[in-house]
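Notes continue from the previous slide.

Worked example: a multi-chain complex. Inputs as given:
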Amino acid sequence: MTNSSSNTTVEMTGPRGAKPKRALSPRNIMIYGVLLVVACYYLLPLYVMIATSLKGMPEIRLGNIFAPPVDITFEPWVKAWSQACTGLNCEGLSRGFWNSVRILIPSVAISILIASVNGYALANWKFKGAEVFFTILIFGAFIPYQIMIYPMVIFLRELGLFGKLGGLVLVHTVFGMPILTLLFRNYFTSLPEELFKAARVDGAGFWGIYFRIMLPMSIPIFVVAMILQVTGIWNDFLFGVIYTKPDAYPMTVQLNNIVNSVQGVKEYNVNMAATLLTGVVPLVIYFASGKLFVRGIAAGAVKG
Amino acid sequence: MAQSTRPNRLFRNLNAKIAALPMIATALVVFIGFTVWTIVHSFTKSKLLPKLDFVGFAQYERLWGTRRWLVSIENLAFYGISSLVFSLTIGFLLACLLDQKIRFENTFRTIILYPFALSFIVTGLVWQWILNPEFGVQNIVRSLGFSEFVFDPLYNADVVIFGILIAGLWQGTGFIMVIMLAGLRGIDQEIWKASRIDGIPSWKTYIFVVIPMMRPVFITALVLIAAGIVKVYDLVVAQTNGGPGNASEVPAKYVYDMMFKNQNLGQGFAASTVMLLSVLVILIPWAYLEFGGRKGDK
């Protein structure tokens, strides 16, 4: 703890108290050494994915999976995107990609819209019983989906939505609601109450306050919710496989069918290219959003 | 809010109630209604279609007499306990390392957390490839001269669950680390100063002061991991599809296969009810401690 103590003295007494820090103390070497090894371990699968996807099959059969590609080829990528087969269908992963996009956009928009209004009502317009429903909702976040999936099938069938895009959107909205409602409720509760009261005095109603005051003030939390939902829905497998038909399978389901299909020769480079293509969307969001992603998952984790 | 006029209690705050309708419907219809529906139907002999033909506990008797279910439970218990222990330990240690006021903290955190953004399907497929005995780790160690080296967790029924554990930990520890790091940052710096003045070594401060102070963080992490573990499904489907044989089956997969492949709905309902019970066993004491206790304080 020598480092931190010198840091705190710097803060308190200015330059006078600063001790010269040794950059290469044994302690630092150990910390950075361990962290570097850990970082390598975490990066390894990503590296293997990229390296394998850029090799030709002969090179894969001869070499080892950790070797960098010698003859870089983008053919596996092209093949994974437009020719890879699932069963009789050989349109490649592109179909799954567009299915996922079609699922993603309405699901994200609708689930966030509904959850934000819910959270707003819970934070600012408490009515009798609201807390009870909210508690049930939060408990629901922990209930294994398995116990609700079959009645949901019947429910969607009755509505005529089973196997359709609308059905899956509904499922994502329902099962995303606990975490999103919690997120928005906590955020709206943290806003100064005077704002709300002032707007009430000025005669604004429920929707007026929501659209003209709350919404413009809560762009950051909407971004956090979007990150949460986009990665969550993109990565979903269970709902996709249950509530859609093969034509409409999202990317994760199609990817699994391509890679784990038993027919034909295994083309590991194509498989890895396909895997990487599926992982790219959440990875881009993750690396682009930085701290907001952390905030999103932490907001989901730490109860208010 | 409306003290002056008291028309009908139901219509007071009407807009908020309308706005909260989706939440109320979800809570009542889906989370309670659907759960009760499944529990009720787990006592019937539904096969292809749900029917209210009650048979008592017959489905449960069959469930606990099925080899595959027992293997699933065993796997889940082993996977669950190991991943709890490992992710809490590794997550905490990594958080401590990152909390040493190091440079490039953001870079390291970004690297350790990125797998969490990936789906279990992607995770499972990558690790399936790395653990592939013909091309992956085993092949490399063999080519270094150890020609007898065996490392094929995904093809060996005895250790297949370790293969899944490796992948699961790779995906999830970053998340636990972030929670732990937030917990560590929440500890008052005065504690550190005090222990330094007293000349207590920092590892002792961690064990005897910091960890007890972080109890709520540990419990939150524990509940989150536990709730996630019971749902484990995609990872197994992608990595081994339950194989070799039945060796890596998990309860969630049993439920799915019974409901949507084997047309044995009653079994699926009974199995999912057992899953629910196992979650409640963890959840109710936690909720009691967390929320019941808090009310008592104030």
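Summary box: The two ends of chain B are 25 Å apart (CA to CA). Chain B has a mean pLDDT of 86.
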